[in-house]
Design a protein that fits this description.
Helix content: 40-55%
Number of domains: 2
Oligomer: single chain
CATH class of the largest domain: Alpha Beta
Structural class: alpha+beta
């Protein structure tokens, strides 16, 4: 039975779990050379996974944020939730449409900012009716 696949799995697991046991697995130079691409790939994967995780460690998707913002607007009778379009890209919520007053626009911005996973709110396209 070859030990190379087991070594790669052990290294990837060690990198993913942040353990320092990789030093013992990489005892000789030939194993180190073979394992280096695996370590790099494991670190890149962990970076990609952690970029979509909020401070509590839970993954928050753009579609979930959009749904939550929209339902929050619809639940608030002082907001014209049906008149506000909500889109989310990488945690940034974009609001568009027309609201009845400047106070309503500010309320919509504040409500959107309170949703978990929101990293910013753009309301440039949210107009106040004249």
């Amino acid at each position: 039975m070859k030990k190379h696949p087991q070594t790669c799995i052990a290294i990837a697991l060690a990198a993913a779990l942040g353990l320092s046991m990789a030093n013992g697995v990489l005892a000789d130079a030939s194993r180190h050379d073979r394992a280096q691409p695996v370590l790099v790939a494991a670190n890149e994967t962990m970076d990609q996974l952690s970029s979509g995780v909020d401070k509590t460690g839970e993954v928050v998707s753009d579609s979930w944020i959009t749904s939550k913002v929209k339902s929050t607007f619809l639940a608030d009778t002082s907001l014209g939730g049906m008149d506000i379009k909500v889109e989310t890209t990488q945690g940034v919520v974009s609001l568009s449409g027309t609201v009845g007053s400047k106070a309503e626009k500010e309320l919509a911005i504040q409500k959107a900012k309170t949703i978990k996973g929101v990293t910013g709110v753009s309301a440039d396209a949210l107009k106040v009716a004249e």
